[in-house]
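[[Sequence with tokens]]
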Amino acid sequence: MNIELSLGEVAHRYLSSLTGSEQEASQQEVNRFVRWFGAERPLSEVTAPRLGAYADQLARSGSDINGKLEPVRGFLIFAKKSGLVQSNLSVHLRVSGQASRRKATSKTSKGNAGDEMSLTAQGLEELKRELESLKKERPKAQLEIQRAAADKDVRENAPLEAAREFHGHLEGRIRELESIIKGSRVIEGDGKPAIAVTQGNKVTIRDLESGETLCYSLVDPREVNPGKGKISFVSPVGKALMGKSVGAVVGVTAPAGLIHYRIEKIEP
């Protein structure tokens, strides 16, 4: 009989597998993650929406978000490689929740007052599926608040705080998705090869220094999903590519300096 391990047990296994210096660098953030979810919680209950809620609340707590999330990503990758979960949950641990989406939306809307939200057909369907999935999480989130509130020792009731945090994130994201879906229009493509890059296109570019080939789909900020190669058309790379044709060389400013890309292919 397979006995599902708790988060605390898996965290202990992961930290024990690290060298002394690696363990010291990861222990604080992995333990913070485990405390937020609850050490006794089964690993199967760590879902994509919950990971989004964790990253979102961490983003509001201070700077160096990537530094705080990286040890947790390592922990989630370990869980996948150990066969404890079926999918790589680390791809869902990113700050792409309500706060960052609102910021991106605000920047876009300043120069496009009154414009409709333009989404790809695929992007709209993904948002609809996410909405349905989150609505199914509602009863469980409410039940967790009730269970955590039943603990009379509210002084150190981290599970109650976590349950309320998750519920607030969940409801906020549901309202946001409903608003996006209601106020959006679908970009209609004619299926013909694009002459110049525009929103909705899939663009293949080559790093002229390293020779690396990258493929991005330029989407509305609300559709952004780095794990699927979907970047905002108002991001630095998106801005550089918009309006350019195959063969054009564009420069993108990065922390390491100016990176030059050549557009290899444009697809509808």
Notes: Residues 202-267 form a domain with the Chitinase A; domain 3 fold (CATH 3.10.50.30). Confidence is low (pLDDT under 50) at residues 97-115. The chain has eight helices and seven strands.
